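Design a sequence for this backbone.
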């Protein structure tokens, strides 16, 4: 399936039932959750939800069925760069289950299809079946661990190691798993690793020359994740 081609709700449900968080949830919760979801599509660069929005605005809680979504923290200055990418099977937008409103901005970085469920509908399900909160807690825990890992990686002092770590984080394969393509420009990727444009370009050319990655327009593919991991984790 081409990533920029539209998909049906049935196909989106199949993907999200077998990949990522929802695939690990209780079968009855997963079935009801997907049945209530709506399908939405976004063009490249389109805003999905905005920090500060009331929970009734925007798509609510949503999973990426195809494409890629960028997270930008809403608690920093206006020029805060992308912090992390979300790929197929990953879920976002659950913060209003615990907080008054959204705390991050989300936008698509390529044509993207999501399944979404309003926060009100999610809460109705959870009030009816309190045992399902454990599945939400699992999502929040794993997301928190991922954000913490990114924060630790940004403390790596060496630029090459830090960039290697962030490439792996964006591709959702920091420690294991299959790598996803990264649909960011070189400058955008460098900003996520606290690097300016020229050092980023130089380091990416070095990684490409080693055969660890390949580059095309606004896309980086990881060819040898084990070498990137060894670089990021080196002493």
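Sequence:
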């Amino acid at each position: 399936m081409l990533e920029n081609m539209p998909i049906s709700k049935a196909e989106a449900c199949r993907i999200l039932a077998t990949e990522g968080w929802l695939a690990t949830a209780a079968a009855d919760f997963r079935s009801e959750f997907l049945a209530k979801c709506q399908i939405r599509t976004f063009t490249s660069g389109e805003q999905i939800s905005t920090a500060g929005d009331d929970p009734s605005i925007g798509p609510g809680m949503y999973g990426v069925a195809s494409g890629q979504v960028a997270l930008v923290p809403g608690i920093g200055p206006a020029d805060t760069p992308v912090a992390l990418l979300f790929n197929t099977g990953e879920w976002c937008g659950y913060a209003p289950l615990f907080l008054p409103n959204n705390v991050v901005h989300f936008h698509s970085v390529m044509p993207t299809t999501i399944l979404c469920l309003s926060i009100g509908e999610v809460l109705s399900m959870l009030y009816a079946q309190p045992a399902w909160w454990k599945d939400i807690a699992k999502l929040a825990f794993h997301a928190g661990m991922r954000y913490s890992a990114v924060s630790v990686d940004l403390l790596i002092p060496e630029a090459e190691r830090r960039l290697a770590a962030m490439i792996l984080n964006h591709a959702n394969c920091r420690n294991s798993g299959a790598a996803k393509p990264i649909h960011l420009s070189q400058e955008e990727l460098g900003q996520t690793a606290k690097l300016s444009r020229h050092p980023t370009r130089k380091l990416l050319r070095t990684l490409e020359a080693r055969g660890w990655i390949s580059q095309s327009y606004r896309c980086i593919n990881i060819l040898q994740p084990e070498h990137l991991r060894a670089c990021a984790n080196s002493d």
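The beta strands are 38-42, 47-49, 61-66, 69-73, 84-86, 91-92, 104-108, 112-117, 213-216, 219-222.
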